[in-house]
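Quick question, first post here. What does this chain look like in 3D?
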Amino acid sequence: METIRLMLVDDHDVVRAGLKSFLESQAGFIVVGEARTGEEAISSTLEVLPDVVIMDITMPEMSGLEATKRLKAVYPDCQVLALTVHQEKQYFFEMLAAGATGYVTKQAAPEELVAAIRSVAEGNVYLQPVLARWLLEDYQRLLTSSPEETHSALRERQTDKDLEVLTRRELQVLEAVAQGMTSPQIGELLDISPKTVARHRERIMNKLNLHSAAELVKYAIRTGLIVP
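> Answer (accepted):
Ran it through. Tokens below.
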């Protein structure tokens, strides 16, 4: 197992100290940097080049939201995991749109934080289940709709004509991927094999000229396939 290099960004010293102590007690983690503000986060990240930045949202001078946008602009390979007290949908979607590939609240269990870090470090999207529950409900409504109802609803919500190139099944797979579901989970939900899910996913990314799960999430938000 390769060691995952972490940057901790939080304006509370006690929080950072607690996180560092806990995370470095886990196999495969090392904290290579810390920052108290968004500006410090950007400069320190460019200096130590971590794999994952664990980012608070509410900080003085520059918010975690703005820091994430700027950080992804100058260091796109870095994965950002939001760790915050905020459970509102607004923050959740704004952080994903800014470039974060995961969102966990500070009320989460320690093992959930560990799972989230490992997930985003592997290039996946991690959406905390308790916050993403309404997305699942929205997705289930899409599954139970007729093809005509599905495409009609999407036309009303979409802001990007590219969605029209996708089949109904591809739209279902896209929404599931944007919710952070794995190929086996999507396959079980849609009653298809993980290999078929992977083929759908590859076709979606080719049609939309996207290259990662994070880009799929941002695309789904931007087009209205997932509504904040």
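Residues 153-160 have pLDDT under 50 and may be disordered.
The domain at 4-127 is CATH 3.40.50.2300 (Rossmann fold).
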